Amino acid sequence: MARKERPLEGDDGPLLRFAAALRRLRHEAGSPPYRDLAHRAHYSVATLSGAASGRRLPSLDVTLSYVRACGGDPQEWERRWHAVALELRALPSAGASRAQAGDPREEPCPKSPAGPLRGPYVGLAAFRTEDADLFFGRERLVEDILTTLSRNRAVALVGASGAGKSSLLRAGLLPRLNRDEPRRPVRLLTPGPRPGERLKNALAARPESGSAELVLVVDQFEEVFTVCTDSDERARFIAALVEEAERPGSGCRVVLGVRADFYAHCTRHVPLVAILRDAQVVVGPMSAAELRRAVVEPARRSGLTVEGALQATLVAHAHGQVGILPLLSHALLETWRRRRGAALTLDGFHAAGGFEGALAQSAERLHSSLTDHQQRLAQQMFVHLVALGEGTEDTKRPVSRTEFGQDADTATVLAKATALRLLTLDDGRVELTHEALIRAWPRLRGWLTDDRERLRTHRQLSDAARAWESLGRDPGALYRGARLASARDLVTSRRVVLAPVESAFVDAGTAAEAAARNSARRRARRLRHLVALLAVLVVVAAIATVDARRAEDEVTRQRNDAVAQNLADTATELVNTDPGLAVQMGLTAYRLARTAKTRDALLSTLMTSVRAHGKEVLAVAYRPDGRQMATASGDHTARLWRVHGTGRPVATATLRGHGDDVRAVVYRPDGRMLASGSADGSVRVWDTAIPSRPSLLVSFTAGREGGLRSLAYSPDGRGLATAGGDGSVRLWDVARPSAPVLLTRVTGHRDTVRSVAFSPNGRTLASVGEDGALRLTDITHPRRPEPLATLDAHDTGAFSVTFSPDGRTLATAGGGRTPVRLWNVTDPGHPTLLVGLSGHTDVVGSVVFSPDGRTLASASDDRTVRVWGVGRPAHPTALTTLTGHITAVGSVAFSPDGTVLASGGFDGTLRLAGTNPARVIDDACAHAGPRVTRAQWSARLPYVAYAPPCG
Q: What residue ranges carry the coiled-coil annotation (predicted)?
């Protein structure tokens, strides 16, 4: 029998209330033993029981693991945790509150014995003097400060918010001064609301005549402008401080830590001008070598190692980023908590949520600390700082500080947001510290979605209205149901101005809906007469036992269908927040009702997902041997990955050098080389024989106007086609990869060429463009291309083209009611349309055939990937619809053996899905994580007996 928990003792404070609530949650989950919870949560028994002891506030990670193990709502408990942490920090004794809340660096780590372990990283907080043994990477800057201080009586250390000034002063400069001989007395102060009084107290420690000088370090000097509201006291403090440093025989030197966005404030005070002019040390971003030292050395000092792939990832993310250091430190702390033995791994970093996880927690802490009015201001502020993408990922938007109000509430929001490193203030501008916040903070995504849905709805309405007009106002093209309701909401919101054709389209849809309702009423009246007759027949039928049983079975089936459909929706919603639970909900839905919807939902939950790039993934490609793949991104890089089936891909190298978005990657047919093409017009060819050490063979320009959009190798690998914004396709001889030779330009398109493909025999080149045209060209003699056929393939632009492996069928993708179209190109001079595929609700940007040619995949801006059976091209069938990407899907590719389908999204993720549904479903429980709890089950399936799909 499990030992009874010790009663909670002490005053009824926030800690005891929080512990009591945790205990209630465990009781409601059936009071599982802590040993069972430890198995589910991956924390020790002592750690989990201590979380509910009421002696101290557990870490957020421990709390959420406890909650998930008991089947609670993690989002609700995260809000509770932040509220209690804020309440504890407001207690009269700062020391007590820190002890109760727990230093984030002294937390038990998963699967380790209980008891505090000091981590090698300090998290979001600034380094303290006692953390000096963990502070690395700023040694050169410390020497610069000391050198400048030796030549001047006062020094100004200037840097942007989040650049690490406080850490540099407290953990870098102060310990170094304390080690000097003769040892110099050091006093550290922050101005606060009464800076004069604090200065007086600090100077009371002045050394006796003849002894070493006092070094007075004023951290967060900007507080004289933000916290001190008395302008006279501010002026007296500044004058006294500078005078004390410069007065002969004063025995005092001064170091000021100044935030860069307060530089102008400082220049308004004459005593500070000379210091800023003659004795200024600037804190900029760390170099790559300094970042690597800051990451590796603290771990090494603690007997730990940092995996090489993790080092490369961290340095790549943080290099050149202003304000990134606190986020880096926090990500490292969370990775340490998930270390594997004595190693910090890339998997641990991803499990901790990377940089984004730290951002989300900080953002919620900010939001919960604000008043209702301040929360509304914060919403307006953060949304204002985001530029909504049009076909690209949202980006941060620097804004002048003057664009926000000057009232106290606005100042409070800004101050708290910068203190948590969510915002950076520099040079009079405000901006998000990192664009990852846009992706990582669900609340901000929700704010943006409100506007985004309105904009997306309007764009879809415009396209539909134009198509309706072009079809002679065909009633079959009108909106109905939910789409019509959304369009009417758009009209009544008065937040957009509709064009005349759009208004007419909505009015016609509304009239058609009213007519349909009237027709339905007439049918209902007829049905009522039939029902009276059928009622008699039902009574007779109910007498028969067999028929009664069948009726009962039908009711059960219909109930299961309804529950399963709802549960399938729940599973897809959980994919990005709780993948293991999503798999189990999807599997349960599929077992309740084996429908296409439940199958698709389950397959979507079983996709492997990795954060591939910091911005949108624009292209994906497999190496012909299937062991490596490449991704291209709007972050100006391409990346190589080691892959094995649907297992988690491992990044092996990042390819840099392009000056703009990398829009295309393609492997040479022998797999030894990769070509990448960019919006800057450049093509770079890489030797990828050793995936971890790719080498650049050549870089050349293939057209600057509009940049490159597509690349394709010829089947023999000796030719390369490049296409882009100038409306032409260039053919290159790349038999010598390091010395490409331009053979010819194929012209004819009236706008940007978006995609190009060689036929399997290498004799025909297909191209599609934003002019909607499909052009087929005979390139049997590459220097003398001959046009074969030109077709208007898509009314609203064509964006992708691909040949089937046998060369008899061509697929194109674009916009319109049938965004995917199949063509018979057995005779390339006379191509004919076979069929248009409908189902996608937005533009399709990528199509690809499977290696056996029996399957086609399409990726769309509607955030889905659809798979079609095309064994009989004239009679295709819809097979699967995969969801999971939270924004548009930009590219799709089959593995060479056809068993995996890869997709790259504008959300920056790479997703891998198995193509054999039966085999994937059979292996589902291997991906399910901890078994679904009774509480989780009853919350979602209250009318179905508890039957976890995975043991």
A: none
Q: At residue 801, what is the residue type?
A: V
pTM of the model: 0.45
Extract long-range pairs of 98-103: CB within 8 Å, 24+ residues apart: 99/56, 100/15, 100/56, 100/57, 101/56, 101/57, 102/56, 102/57, 102/58, 102/59
Whole-number Å distance between alpha carbons of 777 and 751: 17
Residue 96 main-chain phi, psi, to 5 deg: -65, -45
Q: Which of 449, 450, 469 is nearest to 461 (CA)?
A: 469
- Sequence-distant (≥ 6) Cβ neighbours of residue 111 within 8 angstroms: 42, 43, 44
Contact call for residues 124 and 358 (beta carbons, < 8 A)? yes
Sign of CA dihedral 8, 10, 11, 13: negative
| 803 beta partners | 810
Cα–Cα distance for residue pair 892/766, rounded to 1 Å: 19
DSSP 363-388: HHHHHHHS-HHHHHHHHHHHHHTEE-
Strand ordering across the sheet containing 889-894: 608-611, 909-914, 900-905, 889-894
Spell out the domains of the chain, with CATH numbers in brackets: 14-101 (1.10.260), 138-283 (3.40.50.300), 445-519 (no CATH), 608-927 (2.130.10.10)
Q: Quick check: 88 and 15 in contact, CB under 8 A?
A: yes
Cα–Cα distance list, 397 to 431, 435, 660, 905 (Å): 6, 9, 18, 22
Sign of the Cα torsion 524, 526, 532, 536 reads negative
Question: Residue 403: how many CB atoms within 10 A of its CB?
Answer: 11
User: 911 has which bridge partners?
Assistant: 609, 903
Query: How far is CA 684 from each of CA 188, 481, 584, 722, 827, rounded to the nearest angstrom?
Result: 53, 49, 44, 12, 35
Close Cβ partners of 226 (under 8 Å, ≥ 6 residues apart): 411, 415
* 766's tokens: 């297909």
CB-based contacts of 948, cutoff 8 Å, min separation 6:
584, 931, 932, 937
- Residue found by looking up tokens 């529950």 in the block: 563
In which residue are the tokens 């290696």 written? Answer: 851
> Under DSSP, is residue 313 helix (H, G, I), strand (E, B) or coil?
helix
Produce one character per residue of 90-112: b if its CB has 16 or more CB atoms within 10 Å, e if not.
eeeeeeebeebbbbbbebbbbee
Return the closest-CA partner of residue 941 out of 559, 681, 574, 433: 559
Taking a C-beta distance cutoff of 8 angstroms, is the pair 262, 234 a contact? Answer: no
Measured on CA atoms in the order 27, 29, 32, 37, is the torsion positive or negative?
Answer: negative
- Taking phi over 0 as left and psi of -120 to 50 as alpha, with beta for the rest, 102 belongs to left
Report the candidate in 728, 685, 624, 76 with the shortest Cα–Cα distance to residue 364.
76
Using alpha carbons, select from 506, 512, 508 the residue that is nearest to residue 491.
506
C-alpha distance from residue 534 to each of 315, 545, 548, 881 (Å): 74, 18, 15, 40
Tell me phi and psi for residue 378, to 5 degrees.
-60, -40
CA dihedral 227, 231, 237, 238 (to 10 degrees): 100
DSSP string covering 564-614, please?
HHHHHHHHHHHTTT-HHHHHHHHHHHHHH---HHHHHHHHHHT-EEEE--S
Residue type, 244: E
Find residue 653's DSSP bridge partners: 640
Distance CA 651, CA 642 (A): 6
Mean pLDDT of each 10-residue bin along the chain, 951 residues long: 62 82 86 81 76 81 84 79 70 44 43 51 77 91 92 91 85 87 82 86 69 85 79 89 86 90 85 90 90 92 88 82 77 82 82 64 80 86 71 62 77 81 72 68 75 60 72 75 72 59 83 73 53 50 52 58 68 67 73 74 77 91 94 93 90 91 95 93 92 91 82 95 91 92 91 94 94 93 92 88 96 89 94 92 92 94 92 92 86 94 92 81 70 73 71 64
